[in-house]
Amino acid sequence: MIHSLFLINASGDIFLEKHWKSVVSRSVCDYFFEALERATEPENVPPVIPTPHHYLINVLRHRIYFVAVIQSEVPPLFVIEFLHRVVDTFQDYFGVCTEAAIKDNVVVVYELLEEMLDNGFPLATESNILKELIKPPTILRTVVNTITGSTNVGEQLPTGQLSVVPWRRTGVKYTNNEAYFDVVEEIDAIIDKSGSTITAEIQGVIDACVKLTGMPDLTLSFMNPRLLDDVSFHPCVRFKRWEAERILSFIPPDGNFRLLSYHVSSQNLVAIPVYVKHNISFREGSSQGRFELTLGPKQTMGKAVESVLVSSQLPRGVLNANLNPSQGTYTFDPVTKLLSWDVGKINPQKLPSLKGSMSLQTGASKPDENPTINIQFKIQQLAISGLKVNRLDMYGEKYKPFKGIKYMTKAGKFQNDCHLLVIQKIAG
Amino acid sequence: MLSPWFLCRNEDLKEMLESNKESLKLEAMKRIVGLIAKGKNASELFPAVVKNVASKNIELKKLVYVYLVRYAEEQQDLALLSISTFQRALKDPNQLIRASALRVLSSIRVPIIVPIMMLAIKEAATDLSPYVRKTAAHAIQKLYSLDPDQKEHLIEVIEKLLKDKSTLVAGSVVMAFEEVCPDRIDLIHKNYRKLCNLLVDVEEWGQVVIIHMLTRYARTQFVSPWREDAVFDENSAKAFYDSEEERRVDQSKPYIMDPDHRLLLRNTKPLLQSRNTAVVMAVSQLYWHLAPKHELSIITKSLVRLLRSHREVQYIVLQNIATMSIQRKGMFEPFMKSFYVRSTDATHIKTLKLEILTNLANEANISTILREFQTYVKSQDKAFAAATIQAIGCCATNISEVTDTCLNGLVLLLSNRDETVVAESVVVIKKLLQTQPSQHSDIIKHMAKLFDNITVPMARASILWLMGEYCEHVPKIAPDVLRKMAKTFTDEEDIVKLQIVNLAAKLYLTNSKQTKLLTQYILNLGKYDQNYDIRDRTRFIRQLIVPNEKSGALSKYARRILMAPKPAPVLQSAFKDRDRFQLGTLSHTLNSQASGYLELSDWPAVAPDQSVRNVEVVEPVKETGAPALSKSKHFDAVSWPVCVSLQASSPVFVPETSHELLHRMTGKGLSAQYRFTRQPCIYGNSMVSLQLTLSNSTDQALENIHISEKSSTGQNIHRFNAIERLEPQASVTVSMGVDFNDSTQAANFQLCTKEDEFSVSIQPAVGELLLPITMSEADFTKEQGKLVGMNESSATITMTPENVSSQSVNRKVVSVANLGVIPSGQENIYRFSGKTVSSGSLVLVSVVLKDPDAVITINTEKTVMGSMLLRQVKTALTNSGP
Asked: What membrane topology does this protein have (chain A) (predicted)?
């Protein structure tokens, strides 16, 4: 299926290649470079590129292109999903997935790629299994290995491979047994000029960090499972049980994993946690424009809106902006016309605002494009959909684990026409 | 050529490899792997590296493997040195070592070792470790690509591995099947049900491959579930004229889905919840190609969910949705807002979303869509704005109600400051006007006014073409435009020049008085143009329109040639013909057939033999007295865990009697009856399989008949799928499974219709909680010897004379209990054996005749069941009658 893999950095250098079948010359990447040149933005490179003898399927993550070479028919999503899984694995192993990290750990990378694919077909992609085959590099282990001559490579077939719970390794031992669950929700919304919602939806995930000894069998139940409209599970979740009782029952993998992602049904009204008041105007015939923006909290259930970051793409005609923030700092890049304002926390008593004037290119006509404004924010301890975990129980093991559940709401894709205002996803 | 620096560095690596220290060797190998990763050539180190293939250090060994696989092809002779090491490793007790030896051996692309590989694969295919067998499945493809002549032998191995029951092997062997012999559908028959049942537990990558293969399989084996729709759509008129007879045949055969077809759909459905986007897409395409149309809607939500994933995933999913949305708007219309474009989307994502929104547009939602489009037109991404204008044009032609609105909107855009927007609008307006030119002369006039400010050649050419084509509608303006053009002719682009010549010719024909001189002037300019196309065109036009003695008959027809009515261009989706490819495939994405693409066949008109998928149960009992051997399907009984070394067998006798579950009086017209099928249950190993017949005796249709989710007692019940509609006087038979837990306690549950709920209960007879097994007489006595004391219960009865014959004893016992008959060597001893459904405990029954008495002995761990069974057998044997 997957013939070869090339890793290409932002400046267009191939810095790693791996072949699973016979060697494909790296000149095949020339077709990719052609496409890269044609694309205006790095994201605009088409994911599937046909060449006379091969097909190139690429994904872009962390400013590295992962280009897979395919020779015959294969579901493209199969390859794309696998490439993303490779990136996730690298991130899991090295903490970050950068060119430097990959180059530093090139031997581990090679060993990993060797285990993940056999003859181009995925062999072991489950992180728990891989970690038994190839131990992640740590400073301590490197030192120990140089002294004792032991290796990072496991000698036994990982137990998970053959068991009915392939995602969990056996013989897990912890002195502190803990299970943490993060319920993270993102709101996507489009809001029009007048402030009314065009679309709003909530997407959520439950990320888990489980460090429990032995073979624990967990069940997690919700106060209001009906909220969850469309769900996708980690393979460990017993689907039948969910269908019948709306309870998540599972033997968890060891470590970090995404238990569940869900969509909150659109029938439920989505509470919009912030509002934006804006006034962006240009006078005809004048080279000055006014800019006014005020943010305020709305339906936050008393929780503080934090890490607010506003950014906006101003029209091309704008030369400079002279603004005055009531709090935080702002920057304006005259080249890309990107305005960004780091607001911080919203104080409901004293609403943050950004006011001032913009200067236009002399002689240029009044811009008619819609400036887009992106806002990012976080609300701790709140799942905006109202989803609540009822209880978490453990069976199968005798000890008493420490359990913790954390809620958080973030802005997803959130668009507000002011002319047009866009509120955007938060990193982290 | 290698640089001296490189050479010397390799020298030093060679020294390290030849040293005695493991750590130095390892360090050297790590650096070599670094070289390979960078794409540098390290092939001349081959002799030094290959020596370490038998190293004890496992990391060193693995790195040597990496090196070997990379360079063996180039250094075939040297590579042969390593083969014996692998052959030895293939016999290693550690399964990981066996597997990796096979992996490397099969990855070395050296034709000379083909026989060795073949042997190794055959051996590994029967290995005890499923992991090694999985590796063997992968090796099949490698060997096949190295030497296609081995195909026949490899197919044998594939056939063997397809029978494997390990979930680990299933995905890999199907992959090998797809690569080596995708046309050998016959190999799948016997494994079809097993693959369907294993699917949920197979690893995710295997699931994708299996689902794609099963999609192809199903299209060759089952009849189309869409037939009904087709009949309504096309043939309603035709059927009227068809012979009566044919029609009757058609009607008398309502579509019934093959249970195997249903099995596939049912078992793939949960996978829509997978976290793996490829699996979700695979299931979606399976439903698209196989499911009845009304069941299709369940995939919508999952596909829309995938749009939250990475950019590349979105791209593929949107493409597939675009194809689907052409045929079935309704599927995605409720989710229209999910396709609204966001300013951060990549351009190709934006274009696809536009495509989908255009496909979804209908009379009801067009105003919402157009409003959304208006914001897009103002986007800073000009290429996208241009695509939006195209989309507006598409909507305008598809939905006649909004044509005028769209046209007016586009005309407004003509005064936009951005050139690309204006140009695109002109082009789209041109296309729209062609459909109804007469009503829009003012738009043409408006465009003529704007002409001076438009610089994009394509747009200028389009306006000129419009002027010429509809010059009769704008008799005053067209000549004036031509006059202006005559002035700027030399500065125009080629495409504009061609249209100027066209315009001149058309005006000459319609309005020669005003334009004769202008035309001649332009034709003269064109005659000396640098571009030969323009010179050719000019010469042609001159001959055509200006009559002279040399021009033949053609010029008479000049007007008819130039002013012929031209069909309006059809604006249609680029995804119109994509459905010729299976969804979710690379070929679909590229819209051209990729190498190795396997065509999805059309549904067969008549379903091929269904029985090919039946898995024969080993050694069916030879029984003389069994009146009705069940002829229903045998599911893969072999895969169930059976206690001791016994084989499950098919039931000797299946009673036809059904029991009442719900009387039609209590059920307000809904009546239900159940019977025990005595088959292993397909829903679970510990379940008793039941057949439920539901009938509607009212004069109204009953809707949504199902079993309520809350079960009052502890039994685990597998519900039948809700019956959406039961017509008056109709009845339907469904199957369900109940885990009675080896107790005769009744299972209580709620049978619901749309309006009502009825509490019902099923009380099983103890004999129904058993499954028959076969064993030899010797085994029977051995097992019986183990189950004595508390586990034995017996009774002596007096037999009625007509019951004494062997036939009648057998019949009586098997009708009471689902037991297997053991061929007996002695005249007067009858033996029966079975196991309980839930726990699989043995139940042994023997009847010894001692004229006129008979001793019945029952041996089982389940003493309660034993005594109940004893009572029933007793009654059965003492009663006379059949």
From this structure: Peripheral membrane protein
Same domain, A126 and A258: no
User: Is residue A37 domain-shared with residue A116, that is, in the same domain?
Assistant: yes
Tokens matching residue B167: 């979930």
Residues 6 or more apart in contact with residue B93 via CB below 8 angstroms: none
User: Residue A149: its chain B contacts at CB < 8 A?
Assistant: 22-23, 57
Pairing of strands A402-417, A178-191: parallel
CATH assignment at residue A40: 3.30.450.60
Nearest CA distance, A284 vs chain B (angstrom): 15
Whether residue A139 sits in one domain with residue A223: no
Distance CA B198, CA B170 (A): 8
Query: Is the residue at A261 inside a domain?
Result: yes
Give SS3 for B365. Answer: coil
- Reported as type and span, the H/E element at residue B435 is helix B419-435
Distance, CA of B71 to CA of A22 (rounded, Å): 9
Q: Output the DSSP codes for A206-263.
A: EEEEEE-SS--EEEEEES-GGGEEEEEE-TTB-HHHHHHH-EEEE-PPSEEEEEEEEE
A244 touches chain B (CB under 8 A): yes
Question: Smallest Cα–Cα separation from A319: which of A296, A295, A335?
Answer: A335
Q: Kindly provide the ipTM of the predicted complex, given to two decimals.
A: 0.85
Instruction: Give the mean pLDDT per block of 10 residues along chain A (428 residues).
Output: 92 91 90 91 90 93 93 93 93 89 91 89 85 76 61 63 72 88 85 72 88 90 85 87 88 89 73 80 73 82 84 80 88 85 87 86 64 80 86 87 88 55 30
Q: How many CB atoms lie within 10 A of CB B437?
A: 17
CATH of the domain at A284: 2.60.40.1170
**Residue closest to B605 by CA, chosen among B328, B250, B235:** B250
Q: Decide if A230 and B301 are in contact by the 8 Å CB cutoff.
A: yes
Token output for B786 = 């183990």
Which amino acid does the sequence have at B115? P
What is the average pLDDT across B805-811? 78
Residues of B in contact with A233 (CB under 8 A): 273-275
For residue B818, the number of C-alpha atoms closer than 13 Å in the C-beta half-sphere is 27
pTM of the model: 0.72
Domains annotated on chain B, with CATH: 7-214 (1.25.10.10), 461-565 (no CATH), 659-764 (2.60.40.1150), 768-878 (3.30.310.10)
Among residues 316-345 of chain A, which lie with CB inside 8 Å of chain B?
316
DSSP per position, B215-265: HHHHHHHS--TTHHHHHHHHHHHHHHHS-HHHHHHHHHS-----HHHHHHH
